[in-house]
Description:
The protein is α/β, with parallel strands linked by helices.
Amino acid sequence: xxxxxxxxxxxxxxxxxxxxxxxxxxxxxxxxxxxxxxxxxxxxxxxxxxxxxxxxxxxxxxxxxxxxxxxxxxxxxxxxxxxxxxxxxxxxxxxxxxxxxxxxxxxxxxxxxxxxxxxxxxxxxxxxxxxxxxxxxxxxxxxxxxxxxxxxxxxxxxxxxxxxxxxxxxxxxxxxxxxxxxxxxxxxxxxxxxxxxxxxxxxxxxxxxxxxxxxxxxxxxxxxxxxxxxxxxxxxxxxxxxxxxxxxxxxxxxxxxxxxxxxxxxxxxxxxxxxxxxxxxxxxxxxxxxxxxxxxxxxxxxxxxxxxxxxxxxxxxxxxxxxxxxxxxxxxxxxxxxxxxxxxxxxxxxxxxxxxxxxxxxxxxxxxxxxxxxxxxxxxxxxxxxxxxxxxxxxxxxxxxxxxxxxxxxxxxxxxxxxxxxxxxxxxxxxxxxxxxxxxxxxxxxxxxxxxxxxxxxxxxxxxxxxxxxxxxxxxxxxxxxxxxxxxxxxxxxxxxxxxxxxxxxxxxxxxxxxxxxxxxxxxxxxxxxxxxxxxxxxxxxxxxxxxxxxxxxxxxxxxxxxxxxxxxxxxxxxxxxxxxxxxxxxxxxxxxxxxxxxxxxxxxxxxxxxxxxxxxxxxxxxxxxxxxxxxxxxxxxxxxxxxxxxxxxxxxxxxxxxxxxxxxxxxxxxxxxxxxxxxxxxxxxxxxxxxxxxxxxxxxxxxxxxxxxxxxxxxxxxxxxxxxxxxxxxxxxxxxxxxxxxxxxxxxxxxxxxxxxxx
Length: 760
């Protein structure tokens, strides 16, 4: 109450001033609270309390809108009312105003009327609270004195609520930032696809194991799935994810307690502390390889991922960060003869060279450093050149002539293989057309396709565009694919091959025998010929296993109506063997190394060839092997009179070559040869040339091994030195009779099978 001596106008002015000062104090205190508070609920409670203590209101409460029902739910209050009472009042059904000026005048709203009656309130107002521009609740206040909410007061209260809304925006942004940081931290330390630790977390744990643990030696193993990236590139994301999770499950089944991580798309790392010996790590590598090398089957399609494991050790191979890097380096080794490799110091230098090569390689095309060499392919029946394989070479300004083994994998890794591959195709087709325009005999041009080229680009259109541009007819182009390309996505590859084949372009299956292909796939492929890998050709005259593989491949191909070309033919013996099993074509250094275009053109102009296959009258060829040349001379004098054609040598190694070249029906070998025993040599001859009759002739009578060889059918007869001429000639004559009978039976069997096939 104002005193009677004070004018009424002054009393009102003083009351309004005091009221506004309280509101300014309320605004100031709420702003201080906003600075300190990071939790919305704390802010709501504090704002209500300050409204009572500093603002002079009877009650204050904050309600938030329920997103499902639209009702206003009290969350904080102060004064003569509690949140519980507010919730029970009108069952919590309060209105929220969005027109700020109309919030004054509580008598207009039923909820305020009821609250006024219950709590003795004279005026109240509700101000909308916003979050990111959207009304999410209201700040509700009421007073027991009239005329409280004038324009000036309402503007101050609007400022209070705007500050609360601003604070909520700040808190929300901070929450989002914190959540983003947490999410970012998760992605930094964990792989999102598998949930395994990432490289960053693995490095921290490796560092801790090396320095803070009790381990004397820490071993890091990196599993490199060498074909995973190519497979993932071909598949839908969900299918790729299924493959990855299958691999993780397999890895966990082998090593449930060993710390492991996914350190990049195709590599996993494992941590071993104080293994009992290096053999433990190696045995573990074999176990890992065994489970990961098995095909992953998704939707009926099998995928092979070619795991290889690199191993490095702390402290032997450097500091923790270096140990991981060195294990990765070992896992990236091109070695295919084993399933794992330990790091050694020279690898690091090789890695730096690879990096420098990659840099130079990226400039090679614009510098015109790539060239093509061409290796002739020959028809064994005529001896003539009937084809050429285009082979990419890199003549670097910085490194000279770089081996394809060093730069082709780099082209695959850095993605340049598609561009360079298309250049190779165009250049090879252009040159072939040029040869034809110059009047040289037409021949087929074989061009290799890589996995990335075939799966990553539009090969049918690229090939079609190349032929149109160069003017080469389709029948003079042959595309070579490896078995591994087919197996990545067999159905898709086969469809693409048929699409290309329909244009008249041929296919050859390269490096046959080195992959995982099956006859079921081979029968579906539109290939004209199979290329036998040079690794099988190299030792086929002396290694029974290689000889058996080559013979089987030729037989299988012929049964499917395919021709066979053998790569890497370097000796007359290899040529003779291949002719003997009716292989149609060869290529290799025996005739010519890969040549630059000008040298190959000269080869064509000169009409160079090898002697054609001779259809000769059968003769009795006898091979004599003895380390004493006088023995061979004496035997030759005796046996030549009987009409035998004698081939002799003092070397087992040369004996293998002569067997392949001359295909003798009978071979006689001394038992005690320097390189290997006669029985061991004849044992191999039996495996490679099963029809050849084998005889031991020796002056030594250590009979155990000879008797064993005779009993196992590896030796037909054992004869001693000195010999009786007539008896020796009789034995050899009988041996040739047996050989010729076998040959006749084999011929009749083939003829019978051919007639049966025709009748069917």
